[in-house]
Every structure is written in structure tokens, then in C-alpha cells.
Amino acid sequence: MTVAVIGLGLIGGSIAKSLKGFMDCKIIGCDKDNNTVNNALSDEVISEGYTSGGKFLEDCDFVILCLYPKANIEFVKENAQYLKKGAVITDVSGVKEFVTKEIDGLLPDGVEFIGGHPMAGKELGGYANSCDDLFKDASFLITPSEKNKAETIDFIEKFAEYIGCAHVIRTTPQEHDAVIAYTSQLMHVVAVALCQSPILEKSAYFSAGSLRDCTRVALINEKMWSELFLENKKELSERIGEMAEALQEIKATLDTNDRNRLEEIMKASKERKLKWLSEKYK
User: Domain 175-281 is of which CATH architecture?
Assistant: First the structure.
């Protein structure tokens, strides 16, 4: 089997490093940065490397799109003619409804797409920060459709498990985007908003760790995340609205000196968090 990893940044590079030995596959890498391709070749992570798509895709049984969402779509659009009949395509995009709709409309007959999203990352990106254990014990979300064969879905699940993911979750593009708007995108919004305050500049020795933890993801790739936010703007806007309502309710307890209600809010949140922890780590 021949696998093509399109984009050798943090996620793509880590997938390529984790794939060694998977179904005795040959791994081909593609990245617009020639130095990245050469580094992956030198590391023996890939056996062939290219800086653009093309005829090499005619031999690829499995194509993993690891670019930004719009770039993934553009890559498929530009290279649809080269895709092998029977090939399986997946991606790692943080939005699913937009990407799935666009890619499904571009594929030639006999090529299947199943959206994917590994829930893993680091503060620093790029091939230099990729590693072969990035996905250890992570979740991998997939969004199969009625168009996908059972054996294709099984194949994607085996791939996710092979690279180290402990949980492979089947969901719909719509549910994916609604929940990710809360679990991932809203967290980045909150971190960015916290760092908008000039108080941050005075706080170096005023925090025992909570500020660091709450602002960790403010070290953000603004090019990628602004695209993700806008491609999921309806769901993210709703999550921001819900967050604003919760903050306003807490503010109201302060303005009215309502300690009882403040304690009720805290207790309910604590119980919900403990329930989440019990589900996540059971």
C-alpha cells in the first residue's frame, strides 16, 4: 500500500512518523517547503517527497490531507484527475461540515472521503516539532457518511489506532462542529480574550499557575485559527453567546451581593466537571 501525507507540519509530520510499518506501506510526503521535504527524507520518515501534487498520486491508495481546510480543498480540486480509483482520502481539519461538503463535490467516482480530526497538538508547530508519539492516547474523530463502505470506515479506524489514538469516535460533521466550537475553538477565544487585558503585563509574579493554564493556547497560529473560526462561525458565535450569558450571571451575583446564588453556580459547575472527568477517565 502507498500512503501520501499532504503537508508535513506538526500533524502531518507526526502522522508520517507514526505510520512506519502500517500495513507494510510506502510513505510519500508532500509539502510546499523544500527544506521540510528534504528533512523528512533525511530522517527516513518518507521514501519519496514532493513540493506539489501531481502524478505520484496515481499510485496512492491512501491520501491524508494535513493542510489548512481551504488548502486541503484546493489540493483536491487541483489534483482530482490524479486520484486513483479505489483510493481513500481523509483529512485532519478542525472543521468538518464545510470541508466534507466541498471535497465530496470534487471527488471522481470510486474515491472515498472520510473526514478525520485527531485531538492532539502542541504549542509550537512545524515539522521540527513533530514526533512519533503525538497521538498517544488521544481521541480521533471521524465523520463517515452513507456513501462510505463499512470496510473503508474500518480502515480509517485501524489507521487512527495504529498512530496511537486510544479512542476513535464516529460523529456527524454537524455534531463535530458544534462540539468542537466549545471544546477547542471557544478555549482559544477565551485565551486570546484574557491576553487582551493590559493587566497581563503586570502579572508575572501574581499567578500560581491558573493564568498560565488558562492562556496556554493564546500562543496561537493566527492564520490557521482565524480560518477555522470563520468556517465555523455560526457554531462558535453561539458558544461565545452562551459563555457571555454565564459570565453575566456571575457578574449579576457580584453586583447584587448574592452569595447563595454564586455558591449554587459554583457547585453546579463543579459537579458537571466531576461528571466529565469520570466519563473521560473511566
Answer: Orthogonal Bundle (1.10)
